[in-house]
Amino acid sequence: MTATRAPAPLPPHEETFARTWASPRGVAGFFTSVDHKSIGLRFIATALLFLALGGALALTMRTQLMRPDNHLLSPQLYNQFFTVHGTTMMFLFAVPAMMGLGVYLVPLMIGTRNLIFPRLVAYSYWVYLLGGLFLYSGLLTGNGPPAGWFSYTPLSELTFDPTKGSDIWAQTITFTEISMLCVAVTLIITIFKQRAPGMSLERIPLFVWSILVTSFMVVFAMTTVATASFFLAADRLVDTRFFDERNGGDPVLWQHLFWLFGHPEVYIIFLPGTGIVSHLVTTFSRRPMFGYTAIVFATIATGIISFGVWVHHMFAVGLPQLGLSFYSASSLIVTIPTAIQLFCWIATLWSGRPQWRAPLLFVLGFFFILVRGGLTGVMLASVPFDLQAHDSYFVVGHLHDVLIGGAVFPLMGALIYWYPKATGRLTSETAGRWAFALLFIGQNLTFFPMHILGLHGMPRRVYTYLASSGWGNLNFLETIGAYILALGVLVTVANLVLSAFFGSPAGDNPWAADTLEWATTSPPPPGNFPAIPVVWDRDPLWSQTDPSERSVVVGLRADRREVLFTTTLDAVPVRRLSLPGPTIWTFWAAIGTTIGLVMLIFTPWGLVVGSLLAATPLIVWAWPKAGGSE
C-alpha cells in the first residue's frame, strides 16, 4: 500500500469565496453558468466548429475547381456553398473567436473577477450558437442563401432569389450582430471600470487595448450591417423597396451600407490578432515591448481610419472619380499604423533573446503573409489597377492573405500560448511545429497562385471554367494546398484535444510571462482572484517575481460576488459592486429571440411574438436585487 497526502483544506475565507463564485456542475451548469471563462471557451470552441464546417465547404468548392468542366457541384449549389462559406468565416468564426478570446482573457488580464454584465454575455453566446445553426438549417433544407456572403442587391431580392435563402442570411446577420454588440458593450465597460488598482491607461496590456478598440468598432460598424439586413428583410417581406431601382430604391445603397461595415470588419478581425502578436513577441523575446505607446496609438488610428476606406470596394461601381481619389488615399494611409506595429515587433525581437517556441513560429508566419497581403492591398488601393483586378481571383488571394495571415495564424499561436492557462497542461511542441509548417505551406500553395490566376483573367464566383483557359494547373495546385491547410488545422485541433488528457503539467506560469492572467493558478479558480492584485507597472510579473511581495486589495466580501469599480483614467478604487450569479433565464431569452427572428422570415408578427417571448426572461434576469453595490 502507498500513502498519499490529502490536499490541505482551504482557509475559511477562501472556501467561502470559492463556493460563492462556483458554477453549478453538469447539465445545469452548462445552461446557467455566467462565468466569463466558461463562456469564453464556449465561444472559441463553437467558432472552431464553424471553422471546420466552413472549411469543409471550401474544400468541396476547391475540389469542384480542381479541374476544368467539373460537375461535382451544380451552379446553384456552388453559389450556396460559396455564400455559406463566406458568411461562416466572417460572421460565425473570425469575429466570435477573437471576441471569445477577449471574453476569456480580459478579466484575467486586468485583474478582475468577472465581466460587468455576465448574464448579457451568456445570452449573447446562446444567440450566436442558435444563429449559426439557423444558417446551416437553410443549407440542409435546400434554402441556402445563393447571393454571396455580401448578398448584393438585386441578386438577393425576391426577383432573383424566390426561396427563403436570402431571408435566412439576413436573419443570421441579425443573430450575430445582437450577439457581438452585447459582448462589445460588456467588454468596453469592463475594461474602463474594472481594472485592478494602479492599472492606468498607460499600463493596460496590449491585447486588452486591441480588444477595446475592436469593441468600439463593433458598436459603430455592426449597426450599419444590421440596418442593411433589416432593410433587405423588409424588402423581401413587406415590399418596402429600399433597393429596388424600379420603385425609387437604389441597389448601390446596399453596397454603401454593407461595406461601411465590411471594411472595418476586416480590422475587427485583424486588430485582436495584433494584440496577440504583441504578447507572444514580448513573452518569447524576454523583454518589454519596444514602442508600447506607438503600438497603442497605431491600434487606435487603425480603428478610426478603417471607417474611411469602404469605397475602395466600389471603385468599379461608377462613382465620381474625384471622390474615389480620397478613398484611394485613405486606403494607402491605413497601412501606416500597421507598419508602425510591425517595426515595433521586429525591434523587440531584435533586441531581445527570442525563444523559438511554436507560438512564436506562428508570429513569423503572420509577418510574412500579412506583409504580402498588405502589399497587394496597396496595389488594389490604386483605382486604375483595381479596375483591372476587380472581381478577379487576385482579390480572393488578397482577402485570404489578410484574413488568414492576420487572424488565423495569430489565433493558432494564441490557442497554444494560452492553452496552459485554460487547462493546466502544455500542448505538444512537436505537433505545434508540424501544424505551423502545414498551415504555412498550405496557405501559400492555396492563395498565392490566386494572384496569378487573377492577373490571367480568372473571375471570382465561377463554379467551373474551360480547359482552353489554361487555368487548370494553378487551380489543381491550389486545391492540393487547401487540403494541406486543412490538415494543419486538423493537427492543431488534435494537439489541443489530446493535450487535455496527455499533456505535461504546466504550472501557473509556464512561459514566465509578464501579465496578470499568469498571476493566478492555471486553470484559474472560480472568481479568478481571491485577492485582487495591485499593479505598479506594465509588466507586473517581471517587476515583482516573488508572489509574496505583490500588493493586493483587502476588504471585499467573500460571501458575495463582489468586484471593484475603479476610475477610467488611473484605476483608482471607487466602490464595490455585486454581480449576479448563474441563471437559466439567459438561455430562455435567447430561445425567445430565436423564435421571433425565425418567424420574421415568414410574417411581420414574428417581431411581436419574439419580443413577448423574450420579455419575461429578460425582466426576470435583470430584475434589480437589493444590496447591489457599495
Q: Which characteristics define this entry?
A:
single chain, 630 residues, mainly alpha, 2 domains, two-stranded antiparallel sheet, 19 helices, globular, disordered N terminus
Describe the structure in your own words:
With 630 residues, this protein is mainly alpha-helical. It is globular and about 75 Å long. The protein folds into 2 domains: 52-582, Cytochrome c oxidase-like, subunit I domain (Cytochrome C Oxidase, Chain A), CATH 1.20.210; 583-630. It has a two-stranded antiparallel sheet with strand order 1-2. The protein contains 19 helices and 2 strands.
Record the SSE blueprint.
Blueprint: H1 12-21, H2 26-32, H3 36-64, H4 75-109, H5 118-140, H6 165-193, H7 206-238, H8 251-285, H9 292-305, H10 321-333, H11 335-351, H12 358-380, H13 383-389, H14 393-423, H15 429-455, H16 472-502, H17 540-543, E1 562-566, E2 573-578, H18 585-599, H19 605-622
Antiparallel strand pairs: 1-2
Helix pairs in contact: 3-4, 3-5, 3-16, 4-5, 4-6, 4-7, 4-8, 5-6, 5-18, 6-7, 7-8, 7-9, 8-11, 8-14, 9-11, 12-14, 12-15, 14-15, 15-16, 18-19
